[in-house]
Amino acid sequence: MDRAIVARLQVDGRIANVDLADAVSLSPSACLRRVKALEASGIIAGYRADVDRIRAGLGLTVFIELSVEGHSRETASRIEHALTAIPAVVACYVISGTADFFVEAAVPDLASYEELLLGQILTIPSIVGARSTFAIRTVLSRGPLPLDHWR
Q1: Which of 148, 133, 138 is CA-nearest to residue 50?
Q2: Are 126 and 69 in contact (CB under 8 A)?
Q3: What are phi and psi of 106, to 5 degrees?
Q4: CA 145, CA 6: separation in Å to the nearest integer?
Q5: How far is the C-alpha of 139 from the C-alpha of 65, rounded, in Å?
Q6: pLDDT tens by residue, 45-95
Q7: Cβ contact 75:128 at 8 Å
């Protein structure tokens, strides 16, 4: 039942509780209790508006691989804090492989990207290299998570 609720909310996070309850064959009060429990447990992490980047003036999506010197928890924590404080950074991952961090950024144009890279990201201590890839076109940037494995 929880999987059905979460799957439906991923498609329409603004659905009225009575409609959600009907969609998953529960009473509205039982459905609301389950949704509140899913929120309290952290399975449902939040709700947000999905903004069209181009219409919002953020027509350039860039993926940046960052290399770090002096690997430690303290260094990683400091870099994570600095990256997540930059508004243009919309996603950030610690990765394995040739780079240490993988950053997704949304900016208006190349000049804004240059300022982001040179004026903000490469000024973070311990970051020693960056390699960028630009998105030509977005095919899918979000989607419902597959929940078949969740029991």
Answers
A1: 138
A2: yes
A3: -120, 120
A4: 9
A5: 21
A6: 999 888 899 999 999 999 999 999 988 999 999 999 999 999 999 999 999
A7: no
By the 8 A CB rule, do 59 and 53 touch? yes
Architecture of the domain delimited by 60-134: 2-Layer Sandwich (3.30)
CA 9, CA 37: separation in Å to the nearest integer? 14
Whole-model pTM? 0.85
For residues 61 and 134, is the Cβ–Cβ distance under 8 A?
Answer: yes
Its CATH architecture, for the domain 2-41, is: Orthogonal Bundle (1.10)
Q: What angle do CA 110, 104, 43 make, to 5 degrees?
A: 150
Q: Of 40, 38, 122, 138, which Cα lies nearest the Cα of 86?
A: 122
Radius of gyration for the chain, computed over Cα atoms and rounded to the nearest angstrom: 20
Main-chain phi, psi angles of 64, to 5 degrees = -125, 120
Q: Do strands 101-107 and 60-68 pair parallel, antiparallel, or not at all (unpaired)?
A: antiparallel
If one counts every other C-beta atom within 10 angstroms of the C-beta of residue 112, the result is 18
Work out the number of other CB atoms within 10 angstroms of the CB of residue 34: 19
